[in-house]
Every structure is written in C-alpha cells, then in structure tokens.
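Field reference: sequence -> structure
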Amino acid sequence: MKWKKVLLAGVVLMGAAGLIAGCGGGDKAPAQSGDSQKIVIGLDDNFPPFGFKDKDGNLVGFDIDMAKEAAKRMGSDIEFKQIDWSSKETELRSHKIDAIWSGLTILPERQKNMLFSRPYENSVQIILVKEDSPIQSKADLAGKIVATQEGSTGLDAINSEPDVKASFAELKLYPDNVSGFMDLKIGRIDAMIVSQVVALYYNKENDAGFRVVDAGYNRQPVGVGIAQDNEAFKKRLDKTLEEMKADGTSTKISMKWFGQDITI
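Structure field:
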C-alpha cells in the first residue's frame, strides 16, 4: 500500500501548490460579469460634485451614487480607489481597477485604449473666470495665465486649438480642479477650462464669485471607462445603466446633485 501513500502525498502537494498560486501576485483578474464580485472603481476623489470627500470624510457625489446603485443591481460589492488621473489608462489596462467612473468624457483618443459604457451624461467645457474679469471669449485669453486639470477633457479642448493655446502667457496644469479653483479665486491664474456642471456646482457651494464664459465647445458624452478585454462587464453595465435611466433612478440622482436632469 506504500504506493497509495506516495500518490496521496503527491495530490496534497499539488493542491497546496494550486492554493499558493491562486493567492500569489500578478495582475487582478477583471470583473468579467459583475456577479458576486467586488468592482474596483478608479476615480478622482477631489472632483465635486461627481466624487469628493464631505466634511466628515465620507466619499460622496453624483458618480458615487450612480456607481453604488449600479453595483447593487449587479449583485456586486464595490470599492472606490483614488488614482493618479494622468495615469488612469495604465491603471485600467493593468487591471488594478475594473472601471473609471469619474466624469470621464468619451473621446476618440481614449477609445483607442479602453471600452466605454453607454453614455449617461453630456458634458460641455467652458471658461471659468472671476466675476470682475475682463475675459468674455477665447480671444481674450491671449496673454493670460490659463489652467485646467492634467489629463482632463479641458486639456483636450485646449490642445484642439493650438493657435489659441499659443496665445496664452502660460498654461498651468493641476492634479485636480479644486486646486485650480483656489488659485483662480486668489488671482494666481486668470481663467480655467473646466466642465460647466463642475464649475457651477463649486461656485454655488463655495460662493466663489466666479463667472462662466461660453467658449463654444461642443457637448460631449460621459461614460464609464472599462478595460478593452472586459466586454462582458461592459454589456452587463450597459444593461444596468439603461434600466436606471428607464425607471427614473438616474434622473432622481441627478436632481439630488444638480437640481436638474443632466442624464441621457
């Protein structure tokens, strides 16, 4: 019976090796279905009103509520992870996160590197200035210090017009919009290119004394960024977002944060 003992020992060793391999390093597998699995959401957590910390340190916002509702309907736990916005595509590609849910505009350049969910909101970039600023149009940005968030749609809008960009005295990039808003208020910069809903919300909540200048940029859809090899998760999330829009849940969440329905 000695051969049976040797065989049993071999099976035990193979099982232990499998457990070790399963618990070891390597990239995290993507959330292929969303069923009974944690979904890790990458975001900028200083991006009111989409995702930010309230006075008690709790993560709140329009996208936070949308993501939580979607995860609940998909039967999944959810984890929010602050990421370096300029490295968001790398975080997604390496499966350190399952999705980017943070007011992410759907742009052709981004579509080369990730999948997108169905759009759930439309965004437009504007010029934000102080109330007493002489700036009334893009032409007035000549010779001024203009700012936007690094890796943002605002930066894409600036780069799309090289002649206008070349007229700036300086282009400043911030890791988040709030840092730029603070510098705008104290006069370190002259203008910011930023999403209109973000600007209006910040101005209202902080009585910042800002004014919105219509820059003539086109409205662009916003969606959830998903790794290119995670088509199954995209399909499941698309279905969930469709249901949330159809039954009025998305509208209800939008009214809570914006006082109007910005969802599509």
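Note: The first helix runs from residue 2 to 23.
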